[in-house]
Amino acid sequence: MKVKIAIPTPLRTYTNNTKKIEVDVESVAMALKQLIVEYPKLETHLFENDIIRSYVNIYLNDDDVRYLDKQYETTVVSGDTISIIPSIAGGL
Predict the structure, then answer these.
(1) What is the DSSP letter of 75?
(2) What does the alpha-carbon distance between residue 8 and residue 1 come to, in Å, rounded to a whole number?
(3) pLDDT score for 1
(4) N or C: which end of the chain has fewer CB within 10 A?
(5) Is 27 part of any domain?
(6) Predicted model pTM
(7) Which residues span the domain enclosing 63?
(8) How many angstroms from the chain centroid is the CA of residue 92?
């Protein structure tokens, strides 16, 4: 299934400034693995010990993957968009 992965601005440095990447996969987990294969420098920013870092949120369309029944193993269909949303801390 062709799905798009939306890359947030802070991570585009590691994707040659690519905003959206299209992959042909069957699940969210496979999409993230394919993303790392194509852009290995992203791995340390998304994963720690093969687990998504706690401050990285992954959405399938408008749904946070952590709250879906199958989480990262959730099946995707053509036209879906996976968004990577890193938490950003800061203040005054």
Answers:
(1) B
(2) 22
(3) 77
(4) C
(5) yes
(6) 0.89
(7) 2-86
(8) 29
Paired tokens of 74: 């959730």
Mean of pLDDT values over 77-92: 84
Angle at 60 between CA 8 and CA 51, to 5 degrees: 75
SS3 9: helix
Determine, yes or no, domain membership for 92.
no
5-51 tens-digit pLDDT: 999 999 999 999 999 999 999 999 999 999 999 999 999 999 999 88
Distance CA 79, CA 92 (A): 40
The domain that holds 74 is classified in CATH as 3.10.20.30
Locate tokens 């790392």: which residue? 36
Measuring CA to CA, how many Å separate 35 from each of 18, 25, 89, 91?
12, 11, 25, 31
20 alpha carbon, distance to own chain's centre = 11
Residue 88's pLDDT band, with cuts at 50, 70 and 90, is confident
Q: Contact 36/50 with Cβ under 8 angstroms?
A: no
